[in-house]
Amino acid sequence: MYQKIILASGSPRRRELFTKLGINFQYTTSTVKENLDEKIPPEKLVMKIATMKAYNVSNIYTEAFIIGADTVIYFENNIIGKPTDENDARKTLRMLSGKKHEVYTGVAIVNKNKSICERLFQRTEVYFKKLSEPLIDWYINSDEPMDKSGSYGIQGKGSLLVEKIVGDYDNVVGLPVGKVMETFTRLNLAPFGGFSHEVQ
């Protein structure tokens, strides 16, 4: 039986991870505004925002399995989201330089018609190299950090900033696909075969 899967994310990185696995899915962007000011643990925050994104899209596509996701950086008891401008990105990269931070991604799998809401999160440790000012300037001028939590993308030029990671690499990219696939299996979802396209 065909089961429609919709990724509720505007992130091309998340779409690439699903496509790489051969998952048959559609995608659209949730209109939920991300609020990172809440004083709750990072794993609860990312699962809460992911759930809000999934339900936002499930109100339109009630028959589909909706995948919502949210990723944040956690550093010295502070949640770091996407930079507001180049100066904010520079400040973040200087702060993370030579230190360890954690990446949390929350995922929600929602099907409104079936009253399903599965939530999960993944945590990965990332260790940055000691970053020189010329390296920070070069990276910011690449424009890569501007739409990414923590002001870097590990799958691109940002890999040059990273000394090592401990845990799930895909989680740092933006989606812990291993855990997502385990949940698909538990829900008897058969997502393979086909191609991705935007919801019409």
From TrEMBL:
Subcellular location per the Swiss-Prot or TrEMBL entry: Cytoplasm
One Gene Ontology cellular component annotation held by this UniProt entry: cytoplasm
One Pfam match: Maf
UniProt-listed Enzyme Commission number(s): 3.6.1.9
CDD domains to which the protein is assigned, alphabetical: Maf (cd00555)
Catalytic activity field: dTTP + H2O = dTMP + diphosphate + H(+); N(7)-methyl-GTP + H2O = N(7)-methyl-GMP + diphosphate + H(+); UTP + H2O = UMP + diphosphate + H(+)
Keyword Cytoplasm: yes
Swiss-Prot/TrEMBL cofactor(s): a divalent metal cation
Active site: 70 (proton acceptor)
GO molecular function: dTTP diphosphatase activity; UTP diphosphatase activity
Keywords associated with the record: Cytoplasm, Hydrolase, Nucleotide metabolism
ATP-binding recorded as keyword: no
BP-aspect Gene Ontology terms: nucleotide metabolic process
Residues flagged as site, Important for substrate specificity: 13, 71, 155
Enzyme class (EC, first level): hydrolase
Superkingdom, natural source: Bacteria
Function: Nucleoside triphosphate pyrophosphatase that hydrolyzes 7-methyl-GTP (m(7)GTP). May have a dual role in cell division arrest and in preventing the incorporation of modified nucleotides into cellular nucleic acids. Nucleoside triphosphate pyrophosphatase that hydrolyzes dTTP and UTP. May have a dual role in cell division arrest and in preventing the incorporation of modified nucleotides into cellular nucleic acids.
Family of this protein: Belongs to the Maf family. YhdE subfamily.
Protein name per Swiss-Prot or TrEMBL: dTTP/UTP pyrophosphatase
Gene name, Swiss-Prot/TrEMBL: maf
